[in-house]
Amino acid sequence: MIQNKNILIGITGGIAAYKICALIRDFKKSGAEVKVVCTPNALNFVTKLTLQNLTQNNVFIEEFDIKDWKPEHISLSDWADIMLIAPATANTISKIAQGIADNLLTSIACAFSKKMIIAPAMNCKMWQNEGVKENIKKLETRGAEILEPETGFLACGYTGKGRLCSLEKIYNAVDEALNYSDKLKDQKVVVTAGGTIEDIDPVRYISNYSSGKMGLSIAKAAYDMGAQVVLITTKDFECPFKTVKVKSAIEMQNAIYEEFGNTNYLIMSAAVADYRVKNYSDQKLKKGNEETITLELVKNPDILAELCKNKTSQVVVGFCAESENLTENAKSKIEKKGCDYLVANDISRRDIGFNSNDNEVIILDKEGNINKFEKASKKVIARKILEWISTK
């Protein structure tokens, strides 16, 4: 909710700077307090007087233009509930990613510890530059939300990806971030992600197609909602919260038990292997003359069921991936496992689930209530899941 929130907008030196005037007006109409900090080059595209009239506040440009005892890069950072940088040039993005604080805007960004949204705009070749890509990834790893530019005709005469995304998208991202920022404050959320790996020998293993994207999306959404997050994952993810890398089902089980005692929400989105090889070979198994080979498998522990038996006040959310009879199998599983909620998705569909950026799920509770979340990005689905379980 934007009303009565403090929004700090950073404007950098790009042609799209003029568009931010309309965005400021929309924020003000919604009841927000808005302040603007500009890089000196931004004033080549939009005037200070225009921004002052729209915000009804001073516009901040010079780093050492201190009006009182407190340096402005700290006072503005403390004042804001959220920081939006739009348009964000390749130059400013790279400075912030590298921790360079050579003007007021980058100094504020360096000191800012709350939610930051960055909307890049630049030439399409600059957007594809490997250095810029690396810096974007660094900022995402630290928790910044990047609103990728759109494809279209650019001021430089090129047509390609680099145009500032729509003002509606920026407005909605700010609104959503402010709306979710305190939902899970002071709550510990543990999330599992990825498919476990069960070694056969030093070069072979049993696993599955889980990418870990759904679990990562849930962990990021919980972090945005103010939670203390622990992500236990088989994948290599760089995150602004605690991440524990594991490999096998046994390792995942041990890592969960390390965190479970003081956890408020445990969300088991990882695809845990049901079986592991009984006799692991220290040496690579050689191909013989036989046409077939037999591996003896033993059951892995049922981590979800065991946790549900031993939980006290924790809310436990299980996941199941089904290729048929989705609702029926989900009902059976939640009864068998004893979890508080169960999220089920249909892996027979190629447009959702494993390795996809989208998902469509149903979520059940122990009382038999079912809610369906229609196909959307995993980011959106993650937020809907957290919203549902945290308000029940």
Structure commentary:
There is one protein chain. It is elongated and about 80 Å long. Helix 1 (20-29) packs across helix 8 (167-180), helix 3 crosses helix 5 and helix 4 packs across helix 7. It folds into 2 domains: 6-180, Rossmann fold; 188-390, Rossmann fold. The protein is α/β, with parallel strands linked by helices. The strands form 5 sheets. It has an 8-stranded mixed sheet with strand order 13-12-9-14-17-18-19-20, sandwiched between helices. It has a 6-stranded parallel sheet with strand order 3-2-1-4-5-6, with helices on both faces. Strands 7-8 form a two-stranded antiparallel ribbon. It has 13 helices and 20 strands. The chain has helices at residues 20-29, 48-55, 72-79, 90-98, 104-111, 124-127, 130-141, 167-180, 213-224, 249-260, 303-310, 326-337, 378-390; strands at 6-11, 33-38, 59-60, 82-88, 115-120, 145-146, 150-153, 159-163, 188-193, 198-201, 204-206, 228-233, 242-245, 265-268, 275-277, 297-299, 315-322, 341-346, 358-365, 370-377. A hairpin with a 4-residue loop joins strand 19 and strand 20 (370-377).
Summarize the structure.
This protein has helices spanning 20-29, 48-55, 72-79, 90-98, 104-111, 124-127, 130-141, 167-180, 213-224, 249-260, 303-310, 326-337, 378-390; strands at residues 6-11, 33-38, 59-60, 82-88, 115-120, 145-146, 150-153, 159-163, 188-193, 198-201, 204-206, 228-233, 242-245, 265-268, 275-277, 297-299, 315-322, 341-346, 358-365, 370-377.
